[in-house]
Write a structure and sequence with these properties.
The complex is a heterodimer of chains A (427) and B (451). By secondary structure, chain A is an alpha+beta fold. Among the domains of chain A are: 31 residues; 175 residues, Thiolase/Chalcone synthase (Peroxisomal Thiolase, Chain A, domain 1), CATH 3.40.47.10. Chain A is built from 14 helices and 12 strands. In chain A, a hairpin with a 6-residue loop joins strand 6 and strand 7. In chain A, helix 3 packs across helix 14 and helix 6 packs parallel to helix 11. Chain B has 451 residues and is an alpha/beta fold. Chain B folds into 2 domains: 159 residues, NAD(P)-binding Rossmann-like Domain (Rossmann fold), CATH 3.40.50; 232 residues, Rossmann fold (3-Layer(aba) Sandwich). Chain B is built from 16 helices and 12 strands. In chain B, helix 5 packs parallel to helix 6, helix 8 runs parallel beside helix 9 and helix 10 packs parallel to helix 11. Chain B is globular. The chains are: A alpha+beta (427), B alpha/beta (451). Chains A and B meet through helix 1 of A and helix 9, strand 8 and helix 10 of B.
């Protein structure tokens, strides 16, 4: 059992900008622009102007070299007190949730009383680097001390070096894209097309319904003319989804543009604090962060799927907290791909897998699917990598506050064969 | 957001006040809109001493002279900042002639953006026909005088109920004398006994210090100006607007150090959600300013149900529903609460193409008058302001001719600024304004429209 003597960090609220489609509304916005706007929206919602918070922790997955200390720079550009420190975290798609854990842990330890966790990503404003050969020539030129050395460096310039280095959505160690990896897992677990399409449609319907009932009124602030997530399709239907051609896994594949998350731009933030800090300011406590766990799998040589790490993390987290998989009112499983969610659920129900791979005595069992991603998830909202964790934490915390009781499980898969999971409780 | 600056918006006033345009406009007999004196914190109450006179049995003159910031007239006085005529108790035509004499001679010494203020008792509460006539005559006198004043000077009449205490008039007298009432001209304000427990404005600090104020439609324009004035005056300002305006709302809120609340006030659960927010986050509310409004102009023959319904829903129904919730038992609206609505001169005079808008704004007037007596029992006042031509992004988008006509057909020959509406609302919402309720105060520079 974990040490339960520490106080638990409260989730007070959140703010994000609507997630944009790659090359869409936020095509000209930088990560710093989006993160700053997101912080300012949070400041406005909770009256934090000129407030010195304990810390702001945020990150981005696709990062320009100029975005050194992106978080601190965003704080300086925001309405928060410039005396608020900030630092960056990066763990692929786990970044956002890791920032929440980082802030919450310091609050739990009493090192800070308040903080903001956040994340931002832009695939539209992605870093395009100078060709690596050219970079070496330029560095050599810079280091050259004599005319001869400079001429020698310049002589190495070649026309081909004009081709820039583009960021790739591929695993460095396998060369496969994340979708291709997920397609392998989907095939292994025999996740059929229809189930994936149904999950995607449910995500759109849930997200649209949540917007319609005003659920996001105090979670989202419009930005650059975008008021709702650009990829949201309230009229999504299984029939329309069925017409899409597979994009991963070859011609017989099951994964389409409809049941895979779109490339997106956006930012999110979560305000955390101690109960006392919240009480002093009459701020609501939506939920508490109970515990978190990170896992990683060997997807390179170990025969495990790239996005299967949360499957390992959850049983460890449950065991430490004396809980079973059925003990939750809400499940927030990040929809990197519909097949990822379905493979995760199937693995927890698989006796052989649970005993052989996870080392459990029995399967974790099924979950009540009506409690899964009830306010929509990444398939509908989009998935700006580092911003997803903050979106999910704020959404789940508000769901728990509305219910007034209960517990929620967050599961987020990440590149590099990693996964971050966490538990929130209403009280 | 775009702030409308005085000089930037009104090209003609800039011209009529420069070296070439000034003499030219005078020779041509064109109107010469003045640079109005507007409030800055720390500024003197008036631009020069205040001459206080009597016509009638007058009971308020000494009290007015004792008000904070009142500059007394001395031997050296040349230019007057304001003229105050205490005509309380006035009841004869002879006393009316005294009023003429005092005001007429005083006007010559009134400086730029000077103030004329006449205090009298309401005609309907006079003993006898002659007294009622004499008191009502002041109305014609003041309104006409307001049209004769120059250089941004204004004249207003306050009818003080006989059962009101002298202190009940303080917030109104100080407002009408100050630069905060820059665009309020030719109006009649009624002051009665304070509803609930009479509360003077706190002596320390600005009048709204620590009070919780909600402003709807606060993202831009007049709403943003209202939020800003309340924040300046010490209030905790909840800036409310529809979620779609959230980015502008956050900017306004952060500029003034307030709180942003994204909420569609036409949603069925909006009153409940707002009240829950106010109870939970602020432990109550002192002032609610109903400013949110939309226009969907169309001639009545072409007016479809959608245009009609949407305007009525935002401009009137939402206010009715929220006020009803605020005045229900157990609501977070505290005693001493203030409800202020933004009506419009369109609601008083009508406006072509605005049957829906004018209906909603006239409906507000009906609502305010009907609510005031019942709200008084809770110590709450209910009032409306009716802005005339106010320089906003909306009026900037008007066709040139319409805009110029709108600007000039008032006694100050210029449009008002959002801050003028905001200052008027802030006065009505003051703790010391408990004697002002059920009223519609026009902020129109004495526009000929709806006079």
């Amino acid at each position: 059992m974990a040490d339960r003597t520490q106080r638990r960090a409260a989730v007070i609220g959140g703010n994000r900008i609507p997630f944009g489609r790659a090359g869409g509304h936020y095509a000209k916005a930088s990560n710093q622009d989006m993160l700053t706007a997101t912080l300012d929206g949070l400041v406005a919602r909770f009256g934090l102007r000129d407030e010195r918070l304990g810390e702001v922790v945020a990150g981005a997955v696709l990062k320009h070299s100029r975005d050194r200390d992106l978080t601190r720079e965003s704080v300086l550009g925001s309405r928060l007190s410039p005396a608020t420190p900030g630092y960056d975290v990066q763990q692929a798609c786990g970044t956002g949730l890791e920032t929440v854990i980082a802030v919450a842990n310091k609050i739990a330890l009493g090192q800070i009383e308040s903080g903001i966790a956040g994340g931002v990503d832009s695939v539209s404003d992605a870093p395009v680097a100078v060709n690596d050969e050219l970079r070496r020539v330029l560095l050599e030129l810079n280091h050259a001390r004599s005319l001869g050395a400079r001429l020698a460096a310049v002589a190495k310039l070649r026309p081909g070096q004009i081709v820039p280095d583009l960021p790739r959505n591929a695993e460095p160690r396998t060369g496969l894209s994340m979708g291709e990896h997920a397609a392998i897992t989907a095939a292994e677990w025999e996740i059929d097309r229809e189930a994936q399409d149904e999950l995607a449609v449910a995500s759109h319907q849930h997200l649209a319904a949540a917007y319609d009932r005003g659920f996001f009124d105090d979670l989202v602030t419009p930005y650059l003319g975008l008021r709702r997530d650009a990829t949201l399709r309230p009229d999504a239907s299984v029939e329309a989804m069925a017409k899409l051609k597979p994009v991963f896994g070859g011609s017989g594949g099951t994964m389409t543009a409809g049941n895979s998350t779109p490339l997106s731009d956006g930012a999110s933030s979560v305000l955390l604090g101690s109960d006392e800090w919240a009480r002093q300011r009459n701020l609501p406590v939506l939920a508490h962060l109970v515990d978190a766990e990170t896992a990683a799998v060997d997807y390179v040589h170990g025969g495990e799927g790239l996005l299967m790490a949360p499957v390992y993390a959850v049983p460890r987290l449950l065991a430490r907290n004396g809980l079973t998989l059925a003990d939750f009112d809400f499940y927030e499983i990040h929809e990197a791909f519909a097949s990822t969610v379905l493979a995760t659920l199937k693995a927890w129900e698989d006796k052989a897998y649970c005993t052989e791979r996870l080392g459990l005595d029995a399967p974790l069992g099924p979950i009540d699917r009506t409690r899964l991603n009830v306010a929509g998830s990444s398939l509908a909202a989009g998935h700006p990598f580092a911003a997803t964790g903050g979106r999910i934490v704020a959404t789940l915390a508000k769901l728990l506050a509305e219910k007034g009781s209960g517990r929620g499980l967050i599961s987020i898969c990440a590149a590099g064969g990693q996964g971050v999971v966490a538990i929130l409780e209403a009280t | 957001m775009t702030m409308i600056t005085e000089a930037g918006a009104d090209w003609y006033r800039a011209l009529a006040n420069n070296r070439i345009g000034g003499p030219l406009s005078r020779q041509l007999g064109l109107p010469r809109p003045a640079q109005l004196r507007r409030y800055r914190p720390g500024q003197p109450l008036t631009e020069g001493p205040v001459l206080v006179g009597n016509a009638g049995t007058g009971s308020l003159a000494d009290h007015v002279l004792s008000l904070p910031g009142m500059e007394q007239v001395s031997e050296a006085t040349d230019r007057l900042g304001a003229l105050v005529l205490d005509a309380t108790g006035l009841g004869t035509l002879e006393e009316l002639a005294v009023a003429r004499d005092f005001l007429g001679s005083g006007l010559r010494r009134l400086g730029p953006s000077g103030r004329v203020l006449v205090l009298a008792n309401p005609p309907e509460q006079a003993d006898g026909v002659t007294a009622a006539a004499a008191r009502q005559a002041l109305d014609g006198l003041v309104r006409s005088m307001a049209k004769e004043l120059r250089d941004g000077a204004t004249a207003n009449l306050v009818f003080v109920a006989p059962d009101a205490t002298a202190a009940d008039t303080d917030s109104t007298v100080l407002f009408l004398l100050s630069a905060r009432s820059a665009y309020l001209d030719g109006q009649v304000v009624r002051v009665g006994p304070s509803v609930g427990t009479a509360v003077a404005n706190g002596s320390a600090g600005p009048p709204h210090t620590g009070r919780v104020v909600v402003v709807t439609g606060a993202a831009r324009g007049i709403g943003a100006a209202i939020a800003e004035v309340f924040a300046r005056d010490g209030a905790i300002v909840v800036c409310l607007d529809v979620p779609a305006q959230g980015d502008a709302l956050a900017a306004t809120s952060n500029r003034i150090g307030g709180l942003a609340l994204q909420l569609d006030i036409t949603a069925p659960d909006a009153p409940a959600r707002l009240l829950e927010y106010l109870s939970g986050r602020h432990g109550g509310v002192d002032v609610v300013v109903h400013n949110a409004g939309i226009t969907r102009d169309k001639l009545l023959v072409n007016m479809d149900a959608e245009r009609w319904d949407s305007v009525l829903a935002v401009n009137l129904r939402a206010q009715l529903d929220l006020n009803s919730a605020l005045l229900a038992p157990g609501s977070p609206l505290r005693s001493g609460g203030r409800l202020v609505s933004v009506s419009s001169t369109s609601g008083i005079a009508g406006n072509r193409g605005q049957t829906n808008y004018a209906a909603s704004k006239a409906g507000i007037i009906g609502m305010v008058r009907a609510l005031a007596p019942s709200a008084a029992g809770r110590g709450v006042t209910v009032n409306a302001v009716a802005p005339g031509f106010i320089e906003t992004a909306m009026t900037a988008a008007m066709p040139f001719g319409t805009r110029e006509a709108g600007r000039r057909i008032n006694s100050l020959h210029q449009g008002g600024l959002p801050v003028d509406v905001a200052e008027t609302i802030a006065w009505l919402a003051e703790p010391g304004s408990g004697g002002v309720t059920g009223q519609v105060v026009r902020v129109c520079g004495q526009s000929m429209v709806g006079a």
